[in-house]
Amino acid sequence: MAENRDKTFVPEAGTCVPWKVIKEELGELPGNEEIVKKEWENLDTLAYSFIWFWAQR
Amino acid sequence: MSKAEKLYQERLQRYTTAMECGKPDKVPITFPLGEWVVKYTDTTIQEAYYNFDRTTEITCEIIRDLDFDLMYSALNLWWPPMFNAIGSKLYKFPGIHLEENSQYQYIEEENMKPEDYDEFIDNPTEWLANKFLPRINEEFANPGSYRATAALIKSVAAFAMANDKSAKASEKLAKEFGVVPYGTGMTKAPFDTLGDALRGMKGILLDLRRRPEKILAACEAIIPHNIAYAMITAAGDTTLPCFAPLHRGAYPFLSMEQWEKYYWPSLKAVIEGLWARGKRMFFFAEGNWTPYLEKIAELPDKSIVFVIDATDAKKTKEVLGGRFCLYGGVPTTLLTYGTPEEVKDCVKRVIDELACDGGFVLAPGGVVMSDAKRENIFAMIEAGREYGVY
């Protein structure tokens, strides 16, 4: 998995590391994917707004 | 429903009607919160910036007996601990860099170099994280080091704390005093995102001559981010407009030709993108925008709240009135150097000229600075209620 993290991608506006990138690394989840995805995206949005805050100040 | 909740609903309805270019029962009035409040307390500006609880107390004290509809801005626009934690070079704050009753100062530098354009255009968010953040923050200058990791953790925590404290303060003002915020969320014109904290004034003015195609490509790359940033910082709200402080677009920073080619298309795209999501822009047109009014009139009806600072008010009414809500009318200099009588005369004139058929909010035309006088602010609000009844 660690080597996957060197893969480059251009995140869409509003995201830093989109869920689809992580999902590809994780593969099938044994439980409810939506629960994991929702909280991943909430924190990803926070990180995105922190990064852009400094440019938008 | 409590008295404050009823007031909140009435005021929100008044503002919403004005934003829809309608005629509410009264002209909505904005209370301009800012550092000017501090000199009427036993607090310093340093304490007002750093201590959120004290800031909320001060705000509650000053608005307690006032009758207005909207509140604009904040006492502590930036929470210094977030900047201190990461060693930010962008600002100087009172108490740590400046004397305790100074307003903060922004230090403009060329934080993005001409050779950074391509990398930024290809992947803006990654470039900001990898190149920009280490350049503007001394504690984060060496990502991966112990100091940098600790600084990043602290600054992100402070960012989340500040957002939470700010939301709670806003909730308290709404619940206890029926105060409606003027807007939710924040964004910029792409040219300003590029020309403020990234290239700086000198950098972007040189770029207009030396690498204009890079400006266009960078602005194009910024458009979706400025739409996303607005919606994220507004937490999805579409009732209130999104603040957009517009800087380099004021006349005469750019010639008409430059403005039409480099400033306007990407700003227009952001406004249209937001409007497609049901979100208005609070078009904070600092300075004079008179030469550009005809182009601004190309926007979809009601998609902006146009703030009149030094723009010709009569011309604004003529070109934009009836299609966009107009906001402002009271010069901030008058609130500092004028008398209550002069302020009242100004309010009467502004209401006669701009408010007659609705679609207007009475407010200062710009940011009210620390030297404004309380008696003038109060006179503006009182006169607004006296003359602003439809």
From TrEMBL, chain A:
Top-rank taxon, per record: Bacteria
Q: What is this protein called?
A: Uncharacterized protein
Automatic annotation (TrEMBL), chain B:
Protein name as catalogued: Methylcobalamin:coenzyme M methyltransferase
Under CDD domains, the record lists: CmuA_CmuC_like (cd03308)
Keywords assigned: Methyltransferase, Transferase
Would the keyword Secreted turn up in this protein's UniProt record? no
Do you know which InterPro entries this protein is assigned to?
Methanogen_methyltrans (IPR052024), UROD/MetE-like_sf (IPR038071), Uroporphyrinogen_deCOase (IPR000257)
Could you tell me which residue ranges the Uroporphyrinogen decarboxylase (URO-D) domain spans?
168-387
The source's superkingdom equals Bacteria
For this protein, the record's Pfam families field holds: URO-D
What high-level taxonomic lineage is stated for the organism? Bacteria, Bacillati, Bacillota, Clostridia, Neomoorellales
GO annotation, biological process? methylation; porphyrin-containing compound biosynthetic process
MF terms from GO for this chain are: methyltransferase activity; uroporphyrinogen decarboxylase activity
Keyword Transferase part of the UniProt annotation: yes
